Structures are given as C-alpha cells and as structure tokens.
C-alpha cells in the first residue's frame, strides 16, 4: 500500500545528533575515562563472587530475571518510537559497570570528607544521603547524555531521555543489588539462599520500584529535553535539565536520609517512594504529551481511512488508547481487543514513519492498518465488509 502524499518530505531529521567523527572522539574519550571505573566494578564483582560461587550464580540469575519486567515497562512508556536495543544495552552497561565504579570511588571520598568535617556520627547518619545523589546521579547522568549524543537513532523528545536514563538507573540498581546480596552473605557467613531472599524482598520488592530507575529516569527527562527541544532557547533547556537533576537529587537524598524513619519506620519508605514516583509522574505527563504531539503531526497528512481525526485523538494518550481497547473487547471479546491493539500500534508506527520520512515503513504500517480493520469488520459483522476506499492505490 502506497499512500500518495503521506511522506511528502522529511519533516524530522533522521541523522544522529553527532557526526561519525564526533561520535568516534566522544566514544574514545569516554572509554579512556571509564577504564578505571570499569576495573573497580569488575574487581568488586570478582571479590563478591569469591564468597560463594554458587550463591553468586543464583544471585546473577535472580537479579537478571528481575530486570525483565522493568525493561518491558520502561520501553513501553515511549509508545510511538521505541529506543533501539543497542542504546538500551549501552545504557544498562553504563549504569551497571561504569557509573557503579565511579560511585564506589567517589562515595568513599565523600564519606571521608563528611567524617572529617562533621564527625563519625553525622557521617553514619547522613553520609549516604549526601554521597549517593551527589556522585551517583552525576555519574549516571553523564552516561545518559553520552548515549543520547552518540545514539544511532536521533532522539526526538524528552521521553527518549527518560527511557535511556531509566535503563541506566536499572543497570546501576541491579548490579548494586547483586553486590549487596554477596556482601550480606559475607557479613553473615551464610553462603546459602537466605541473604538472596532477604535482599530480593528488601531491595527488590520493597525498594526496587522507587530506586535508581526512577531517579535517573527523572535526570534523563531533563537531558532529553536539553538535546531535543530545539524550538526552545538554550536558557530554558538548561534550566529544565537542572531542575530535573535537582528533583532527582532531592528524591534520592530523601530516600537515603533518616528523615521520617524514627516516626514511621518501614512505612517511611513508602512515603519517600511516593514522593519519588510523584516527581517522575509530573515529568512524564509533560514528556508524553509532547511526544504524542510531535508524532501525531504526521497523521494529519494521511487519509482518514488510515487514521481519522477521532482516532488521532485516541492515540494521543494511554488513557484514551485503553478506553478504545476496552470498548472493542466489550463489543467483540478478546479477538476484537487484540485487533484494536494491532490497529493502534500500526497507526502509531505510521505516525512515526510519516514524521521521519520513511516511505517503506509507512507502506508497511498502512498494510497492517488494513488488515486490522478487516479483522475488526469480521468480528463485528461476520463478514470482511471493510475495504480501502475505491481508488486507493495498492502496491
């Protein structure tokens, strides 16, 4: 199916933000600077596994599986144009090995500084709240910015920054949790499964949803806005990036601090976690609206039988997409819901294809839209009554 005029020109540049030469030098300098942090991370992991190779293997499997639902959710938040897997792998690796190594070195230095200037008691109580957000969010944020700059696919909106940031944070979080598991086994002299179960419950189930993926996702929203909001002035873009960093710094520091713990105990974790999620939700609301607006422009250029104005409004938010799928299921059961889901996905892919000027992808999405509409027609009426309008060219 070829849609005349659907892709009249490249409305959004497809080239990466940097040239091949610039990417080469950025990556070369980054790799040289990261040799020490990577070595620190690998040394720490090697020492950890020596405690109990069997427990280390079990922990690696459990924490690896733990990442899967997080990756699925993070990637699906960017509904229109999802990040390439290469960028996600690089993000996870940066967080787990480079940022983690940087933090190990820098956190120790800050703890020593707090101890010298404020005393041992203050360092024990507030050291994590000072050192954690200071070193870790900077180390992770540098990785987010580098990956956005050298990504093989040009970032479009702040939502791209969120996805990269959240995956960087997830990598940091998972490797840190593995280290905590092995450290607990060494401290307790227990090479069995108990330390793994304890850490999985405390750091995985209780603290996990409010942890580094959230903090660095917030940082990523700001950095994504910085590099993509070219219709705004540099002053506003820098201010938004700084505001996002300060928000992440605050919620990370609040989580690590002793505030509320004496009054609420474990419940304080839920209160602090709610603050972190609220900060992320505010940023995501604006980012997802801007992302939908950016790509929906492409759908105004296609015929209504591919995506009508009402369907364009339906695609604009997760709430309206869910409402349409729910209505389809009530009318025709699960097959209708599946067909509606496929129709929405194809229309979103068409929006991206038109926006970036990819005729082949637009043709593919158009064919899938026709197939989904025909399935819905069969479900609703028992016959494949729907067909493209007369005269619509078919390749």
Condensed summary:
The chain is built from 13 helices and no strands.
Structural overview:
The structure is a single chain. The chain is mostly helical and 395 residues long. The chain folds into 2 domains: 20-298, no CATH class; 302-381, no CATH class. It is 78% helix and 0% strand. It has helices at residues 20-51, 53-77, 85-118, 120-150, 158-188, 194-206, 212-228, 234-256, 261-264, 267-296, 309-315, 318-356, 359-381. The longest helix is centred in the C-terminal third of the chain and has 39 residues, at 318-356.
Annotate the secondary structure layout:
Blueprint: H1 20-51, H2 53-77, H3 85-118, H4 120-150, H5 158-188, H6 194-206, H7 212-228, H8 234-256, H9 261-264, H10 267-296, H11 309-315, H12 318-356, H13 359-381
Please provide the ordered H/E string of secondary-structure elements: HHHHHHHHHHHHH
The number of distinct helices, counting runs of at least 4 residues, comes to 13
Structural class given helices, strands, pairing?
A: mainly alpha
Strand content: under 5%
Distance between the termini: 5 Å
Number of domains: 2
- Molecular shape: globular
| Poorly predicted regions | none
Q: How many β strands by DSSP? A: 0
Q: Major sheet, described briefly?
A: none
Relative helix content: over 70%
How much is the average pLDDT? 87
Radius of gyration: 24 Å
Overview features:
0% strand; mainly alpha; single chain; 395 residues; 13 helices; 2 domains
């Amino acid at each position: 199916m070829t849609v005349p005029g659907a892709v009249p020109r490249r409305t959004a540049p497809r080239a990466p933000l940097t040239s091949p030469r610039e990417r080469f030098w950025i990556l070369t300098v980054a790799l040289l600077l990261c040799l020490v942090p990577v070595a620190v991370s690998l040394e720490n992991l090697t020492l950890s596994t020596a405690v109990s190779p069997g427990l280390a293997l079990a922990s690696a499997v459990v924490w690896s599986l733990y990442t899967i639902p997080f990756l699925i959710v993070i990637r699906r938040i960017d509904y229109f144009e999802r990040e390439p897997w290469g960028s996600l792998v690089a993000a996870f690796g940066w967080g787990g090995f480079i940022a983690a190594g940087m933090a190990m070195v820098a956190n120790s230095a800050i703890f020593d500084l707090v101890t010298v200037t404020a005393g041992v008691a203050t360092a024990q109580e507030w050291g994590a709240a000072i050192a954690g957000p200071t070193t870790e969010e900077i180390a992770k944020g540098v990785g987010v910015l580098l990956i956005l700059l050298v990504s093989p696919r040009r970032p479009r909106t702040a939502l791209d920054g969120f996805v990269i940031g959240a995956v960087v944070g997830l990598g940091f979080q998972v490797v840190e949790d593995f280290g905590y598991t092995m450290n607990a086994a060494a401290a307790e002299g227990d090479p069995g499964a108990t330390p793994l179960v304890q850490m999985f419950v405390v750091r995985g189930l209780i603290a996990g949803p409010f942890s580094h993926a959230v903090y660095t996702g917030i940082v990523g929203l700001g950095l994504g806005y910085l590099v993509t909001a070219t219709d705004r002035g540099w002053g506003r873009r820098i201010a938004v990036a700084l505001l996002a960093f300060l928000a992440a710094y605050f919620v990370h520091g609040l989580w690590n601090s002793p505030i509320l713990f004496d009054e609420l105990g474990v419940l304080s974790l839920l209160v602090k976690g709610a603050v972190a999620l609220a900060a992320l939700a505010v940023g995501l609301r604006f980012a997802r609206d801007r992302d939908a607006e950016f790509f929906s422009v492409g759908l105004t250029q296609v015929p209504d039988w591919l995506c009508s104005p009402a369907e364009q409004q339906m695609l604009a938010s997760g709430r309206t997409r869910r409402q349409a799928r729910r209505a389809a299921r009530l009318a025709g059961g699960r097959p209708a819901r599946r067909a509606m889901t496929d129709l929405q996905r194809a229309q979103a892919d068409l929006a991206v294809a038109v926006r970036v000027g990819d005729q082949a992808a637009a043709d593919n999405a158009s064919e899938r839209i026709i197939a989904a509409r025909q399935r819905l027609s069969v479900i609703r009426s028992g016959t494949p009554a729907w067909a493209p309008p007369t005269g619509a060219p078919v390749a």
